[in-house]
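Progress report, Aim 2. The chain analyzed during this reporting quarter is listed below.
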Amino acid sequence: MSWNLACPDWAERLKSGRSLVPDLPLNAKEGNRAVAVFNKLRLADVPGTPTMGEAGGDWFRDIVRALFGALDPLTRARMIRELFLLVPKKNNKTTGGALLMLTALLLNMRPRASFIMTAPVQDTAEKAFEAALTAEQARLQGETLWYRMIAGGAAPRYVRLRPRPNLAALLAVALCSSVLAYLFWNRGVEEVGANVAGLFVHLMPVFGVVLAWLFLNEELAPYHVMGIVLILSGIWLTSRYGRRRPDVDEAAAVGTD
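Predicted structure tokens for the chain:
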């Protein structure tokens, strides 16, 4: 069932400078994520190519937040499926609508999804498509490098690489995961032995959940916390009360002729 978007107090809202989008039980995470993407899109036909975060109006960001925040986190159903706006001329309607469509395209998770952008006349449709196209080109030009790769006589391929995030990821994998991790692991085995050190392999999902929560803004659900508690409890119980094998004399283990 769709939400009621009626705004009976629109006159009071206009007088007080408040948003005309009614108070809705939005999915704040999805709505803010869409606004963040929308704000980064650039106006390629404006001097300096400012972003929508710099040149766009808050009234349109409220619409973006409501439209994308109307996604039910459990059923993934959209509670707002249609949106009808009446906006005066020269208020960036065509460009705003085009970049709204581009935001939907960038956030889309359905494989091979179709997106249709229409307009009352062909000229307006062409302007909207041009706004979306140039905004995407400006985004790619500002955030990516293109490397030409030729492999085995095959046709040239172009691979998109974001310099800063990819470089940081490569350094993290090269230093933390490939070098420091093994140095620390070998040192730990030397200090406490392989039997005890092996228990701490089970901490990998704990670190994965905590780091994703801290740095990727992922949700920390109650079952995550319960899993972490169980893992830590298991490691503590095993390391403290686990049965230890008696030392075996090396000479006896090797044996004699």
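Residues 144-161, 248-257 have pLDDT under 50 and may be disordered. The beta strands are 145-149, 157-161. These observations will guide the mutagenesis work planned for the next reporting period.
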